[in-house]
Every structure is written in structure tokens, then in C-alpha cells.
Amino acid sequence: MDDRDVMNVMIIGHSFIRRLRDDLTGEWSNLGFDNDSISVHCYGKGGGRLRDIYSCMSDAISTIKPKIVLLQIGGNDIDSRDFENVRDRLARDLISIAQWLREGFSVQQVGIMQLFYRGKTRHITVQDYNHSVDSVNDVVKSMCGSIEGCFYWRHKGLKDAAFDCLCKDGVHLSDKGLRKYKYSVRGAVLWGLTSANREAAKPRDRSV
Asked: In Å, what is the CA distance from 54 to each residue of 70, 91, 123, 173?
């Protein structure tokens, strides 16, 4: 198959994505997809924040030219002494990144994935952090519903049992959590692919 026929998918974010990349071995290589049709690229930066997508990952996005991008980022931004201001603008900033990816890199579908609760934090209380996560997730979900080529992805099986799926550090996923996460991320890729194909099949208005 011609390389041009392969659908490139990028999963971008913080250390969750770096750990996901390291765990994609054996039957889970390439997130379990056929390499002849889909190529999955994971770019995760430990401690990553939203600004790192612009400063550290633009070159990779330009090189890979993904049609689907999934974002798992924002938690480290919230764990800040300025968390109230961060919380109030974070959803809009995530949507801005999605629009930047679509308009600047011709990405067909951008999935903004659910932020996770934490059991331990550095700069604010755990309660403030987790309430902020709920707030941001709710706003992102609402905003994605009205923006073309952008969807919110809830990690099934991880929200209600969030704390059971964390490591002792209270931040990263345990082995149990990572297994669930892989299935969820694969589901998000499939949703993005289906949405992209559905969008491509729409008849174009040639009257304009």
C-alpha cells in the first residue's frame, strides 16, 4: 500500500501519553491497528502543559501530517496556584488548539480527551483540583458539540473508578488503569476515523 493511503493519527499530551507509547508493544503495537492502514504516533512530554503543544510539537505535526489528533493535556496546567484563572480559560484554550490544528495543519478530527482526577497535588488542594477537572470537562464537552471536526472523549471505565486506577503517586495510571486507558484511547481513534469518513462522504455545496 502507498504510504499516502495510510491514515496518520497523533496522540499528544503529557506523561500519560509517554507511558502509553512505552506500553504499546506486542499485540498492542500501533494501538492494535493494522500498520497498512493506520499509523499511530504518540508524543508525550513529562509535565507537559498546553503551551508545549505550540512550542515543542509543531515540527512533529508538520512532518507527520495527521488526519486525526487526540489531546490528553491540561491537568498540569490546573495544578497551579493560579488555578481559578487557569480553570476559567482552559476549555477555551483547548478548543483554540483544536481549531489551530484544523486550520493550520488540515487535521480532519480533533478529540479532546477527558481530564483525570488526582489523588495528590502539588500546589492546590485535591478537592479544588478535582472540582476544576469536572468544570473543565463539562465546558469542553459542551463546546465540542457545536464545533465542526472536534469531539470530546470520555474515558469509559475510568471516571467512576478513577482513584482505583491510579498509582501510589496519585497522578499516573496504574497497570490496571493503563490497560483500560489503552482500550479507551483506541475507541477514541475509531470514533475520530468514523467521524472523518462521515465528513468526507458529505456532498459538497458547489453553489458557493
From this structure: 15, 16, 24, 26
